[in-house]
Structure formats: C-alpha cells, structure tokens
Amino acid sequence: MAGLQLIPLPGPLVKFLAEPIYNLWKLQFLPPNLPHPGSLIPLTLYPYATASVGILFLCYWLAFVLARAMAVQGSALHPRPGIILYVVVAAAVSVALVGIAQKGLNARAIYGFFTPLHSGSFMGPYVNYNHFAGCLELALPISISLLGFALIPSARHARSLGAGWLLVGAIVVMLAALFMCSSRGGILSFATVAAAQLLVLFGLLSVRKIKGAIWVYIALAVIIMGVAVHITDWSNTLPRFQKIISQDPHQNIRWKLFNDVAAMGNRLPLTGSGLGTFAVAYPFFKTLDRQGLFNHAHNDYLEFLAEMGWPGLLLFLGFAGWVLWRGGRVIFKALVLRTRGDPDLAQRALLITGSMGGVISLLLHGLTDFNLRIPANALTWFALCGVTVGLSDLGTPLRRQQPVGEDQRDLLA
Fold it and tell me: pTM for this structure?
C-alpha cells in the first residue's frame, strides 16, 4: 500500500482520487513553479516518511514470517515457539525492573542520561508510559500460558516447578510495573484479556489430577500479587480511573482529536494522506483548539484510516481478523477434545492463548493509543501474530501423534 502511495501519478488523476492531497502539493510550489496539469504527483504528502515507515512495516512482516516458520517447525519436547515466547517475557521483565527502579529512585532521565524533550511521563526505556504498558501487555498473557505449560506433565516432559516459580515471579513483577505506570488503557486491556484467558485455561486444564497443583499455584500467585499491589503507589493510578467516570467524554482531548482524524479520513477515503504522514497532514485538517504538534492520532485504527484510507484500514483489520480466527479455531477444537486425550492439541492451544492474548491486548489498547507505531512493540506484536498462525497449522503437529479414533478424526476434519 505504501509503495502505491509513492508512485508519481498525473495531477488530474491525483485530484480525482484525493483532491486535498493535490491542493496541498500545490501549496508547496510558489509561482511560477505551480504544477501544471501534466505534473506527476505522489499520493503521499511526505514521500520520505512514507518510504521510511513502509520499510519498518516490511521488517515487521519479515518478523511475522520468521516467527511463523519457527512455530511450524517446533516439537512438543522442544517447542521453538516457546523460545520466542520466553524471549518476549524475559525482555518485558527486564523493562519492568528498569521502570520500577526508576520509580523508586525518582529518576529524572531514562537510563540516567537521556531526558525526553517533550515528555515527563517516561517509564522504563519508553518515552511514554502507555507504550511501556504496551510492552507488558504483550508479555503478561504469554507468562500465564507458559505457567500452565510448565505445570502440566505430559508423556514428553515432566512438571517444571522451577520454571513455574520463575514465571509466577515474572507475572508479579510485570503486574506491579503495569500498575505503577498508571496507564488506564494498558490496565483495562490486560484485565479484559486475562479474564478471558483464565476461563479458557480452566477449560483446557479440566483434568482432575492437574487441578490440585493449579489451585495451589493460583493461591500462591494471588498472595504474592496482593503484596505487590499493596506496595504499589496508587496515588496517580486511582485518580486517573476516577476521572473516566467524572469527566464528560466530549471534553476529553482524545475525543476531540478522534473527531478531527475521522473527518480527515472521510476527506481522503481512498488514499489517505500517506503512510507515516499524520504529523505533516493533520494541521491542515485540525479544528482542535490546542497548540502543539500531534505526531500520532492516539488511535491505531483512525491513524490507519487517515494515512491509508479505507483500503489500508480494511487490510489491517483483515490481517488481524485472520490471525485471531486461526488461533481461535485451535482453542475451540482443543476445548472440544479436552476429554478425549489429545495432549499435543492442548499444549498447542495453551501456547496460543498466550501469543493471541498479547495480540488482542494491544488491539484493545489501540483504541486509545498508538503502540503499533512504536517499533519495539510493533515488531513484537507481529512476531506474536506469526507464532499464533504457525501454531494454528493443525496439519503440522508439534510431535508425531498416535493414530486418533474415528470420532476424533471427524472433529478434526
């Protein structure tokens, strides 16, 4: 899509497809250099930004392809997607520890030496605390699924109590950091995903001999998380949630910005202003009575609409829907077959609940922020999409299975 926006087209065609872009391009030329009818104009206001962000999304796509390939080639004993998931969790725990240390030390700079110019709300290595929360949202559902994977013995691996304790500690650290950062969107998105994920996990782990160990670990995790919540400073977090109830949503600056961006998208429904050009294009459509530069729309979906038009937004929604459909199909079949003894399918579904949980969490947070325009979070999100799709390939089992019965074969068909 970005490549199409970079192709120079005749001026009359650009005027037909996106008249605001044509008019804005004319403003960049002073007489006597006004573009004549035969001038070639791209469908983007800032070709350099479109090319740069387009290359970034190409890298994200490569991460998706590589993660999918690793997931397909895994095995139950040594699941390669597990490597990716553990790396994501380890990186997020490191980020969380940095954020907690910054809060405790009342740090004035990131890593002690970098002070953001236009933000005093940094957390960890992220300039904005909402993107710090986005990093944790991607990893927390994975930690929950890996905890279930570590506690469930199978024919190929024993229960790993050490890994279970490490994952409980990782969950506590990341939850404490998530509460400390005061991101309402991050907390609500994770809470929604975690509630749905736990329901699925209890369905998958409904074997009686496993229930005892699961309940013990849940009780211990609740106690430790309770301590973490108790020591967390809620003086900034709770007032922010109270503000949601007390404030008129129409007076919220994000709501006003969303109205502007939606109108911008309606003015350029076929082409958008060009991938990566929001900061350049928005001032020409701005009605918000506030000074300052808006680099992003604070809504991933509206930003796709503004920059790539309806074709770009529908392409993104189609990709996300396809990933969720692939993962959800496996989870549904695993729930159907949970009483029939299909350990490979159950283990596959356990991992998918984590990777797909991270994908959904960032999609929910995308309603009020722009994590998919933060390279670290976007790259991880696409990698988790690749893991989800790779694990959902039911034709490539995690390990060689015993022949299934006719009734199971009918359900898997």
Answer: 0.85
